[in-house]
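Hi R.,

Here's the chain you asked about this morning:
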Amino acid sequence: MADNKNLPDQNCTLFIDRDQRLWMFWCSAIDNEVRSYFPMYRYSTDYNGDGPPVWDWQDALFVRPKDAETAFPELLKTRIKMVQETDLLTEEMKTQILNHFEERREMYSDKLFQRIGWLPRQPPIMLSDKRMMLGLYSDTFDCSMFAFTEDAGQTWEFSRPLVPFGIQPSIVRKKNGDLVAYMRASPKTTCVESSDGGMTWTEVPLDILNSGASVAALALESGNWILAVNDVPDGRHQLSLYLSEDEGETWTRKRHLEKLDPEKGSVTASYPTLIQAADGMVHATYTYVNEEEAKGKAIKHAWFNEDWILTGSSYDK
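And the predicted structure, written out as tokens:
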């Protein structure tokens, strides 16, 4: 599918747009450090035959965050204040985070580091027949951002970096056109909302636990939303599905995709991705480790219908 010789290729995501192009986004680390991740993309219109797709186009995603010269220093200043004032962190945790900021202070004003180190995680969404929106995140700055194209990847524009803590955004769209993104964070899942097409974002309270692991959100054909998340204080042994019948205002149903016993060796169910097929079935893929069953790591594929989620336990948040 992709191979930048002698470099790690990772964080791939696949997507079919409204013109039936198969897209693949991924990244390579130039010096094997988080600071040097470089996003790439390619697409194909010939992918139903045997073997890999026949790729029509490939390019690097040259990231230029909007208002970068002012946005990143403002991001650093605001986040320092947020950490100092929060009551969700212990003093020891605050010190660790503030020291981390100081170690990378110069990067916040360095144009090169503002533009490299960005990774994809979840599939993009289409805002119109032509406008695609892709979530990106940076491990250097521990923040998210969004990329947009209206000409099949020939040109791109970018949002400002998001101030709220959270990475690996998963995007859903409300019926009124507003956008909501759910992000990996700790101790709770971060939720942000945009009313201007994803260019600016505001944090929205969400009381769903997150152990600092990736999440996946999906708007179903019925209009209901689902959210997959490791909803435990620590670890990734429990992967749950939440369902909302009011576009994320409340979450009323919950089912476990995986509920493993962390006392029985290495167990992990994490990094979920969700899609809904034409027949209405929901498909979930996620990393899976269970040393009771077998050594090594795997990708697990589970599928179910919406009724299976609706028969789950009630959850009032």
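The chain has a mean pLDDT of 95.

Let me know if you need anything else.
M.
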